[in-house]
Amino acid sequence: MKQRILVIHGPNLNMLGKREPEIYGSLTLGDINTKLGREAEELGAQVEFFQSNSEGEIVGRIQGAMGSAEGILINPGGYTHTSVAIRDAILSTGLPVVEAHISNIYKREDFRQKSFISGVALGIVSGFGAESYSLGLRGLVDYLEKKAGS
Ligand code: CA2
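That is the input. Now the predicted structure with CA2 docked in place:
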């Protein structure tokens, strides 16, 4: 069975490639999604994309993933460091979640060094630029395939 992965991009990630390329690189969100789509196909998986600047919409989409996705790859953006609601939504679905960050949040400002999401994530990838998403996707699909085969 094809593993269905929901990819969620949090607030401001729609600005990728347009501002702050020294921190977040030059690829746009569209470029990253196209790359992930190709990689998912190579892995025999299927991806669906969602971006929102609104915490409530992200919570809603996570809840909506129950029954329509086997796993979630999420870059919660700034909500990483503030959102009990996104953490609770992840827990409520019971779906495996991989947290991805373009930058290495642990070598940035103190306030970025706390993630509300990591403690409920299957794993996290941080600091590899757009490649963090690709690495996260591979890890998640690998986990789901092993689980399905066991
Ligand atoms: O490194 C990451 O992926 C972050 O999740 C990105 C968030 C930041 O708040 C987290 O601490 C780490 C910010 C996303 C903002 O993206 C922009 C992209 C281009 C221009 C401006 C913002």
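The first strand starts at residue 3 and ends at 9.
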